[in-house]
Sequence to fold (165 residues):
Amino acid sequence: MTVAENTDAERAALLRFVERFALVLRESGMQPMPARVFAYALADDADRYTAAELADGLQVSPAAISGAVRQLVQIGFLVREREPGTRSDLYVLDDGQLWTRFVTAELQALRRFEDVVAAGIEQLGADRPGGRRLVETQEFFAFLGEVLADAVTRWPEERERRRLG
Fold:
């Protein structure tokens, strides 16, 4: 059931959640409209949407949806499909291993941070207060990367354990 088929109270609750979660996503660096579209697709019950359905569900213009779905397709959160005989693209939340893909992308960013900091240590030296802070930063990024990589590896087994729980 899509939000259009929900009661007014259910629709209001869904949209409140979408705005709260989208705000968190925005604070993490995602653009506002892709954050709203992603939060909506994640929480709504439908498994595929046209751009018009997303616009209607979020109460925004179809033009606002266009760039958002393009970005979400590029980063792998949505998949664009088309039903035979239709002219409208459908957008499907690619929820198979969604969060492991997300964290894997974050791991790549952490590695870039670590590499830049390592180059800074090499260039500026570690034997000064700023250099020691850079060493601490590099060590933290390396540790965090190891922990997150381990969590991604362990997640399928943990997910199954929780489901059987």
Notes: The chain has a mean pLDDT of 91. The radius of gyration is 20 Å.
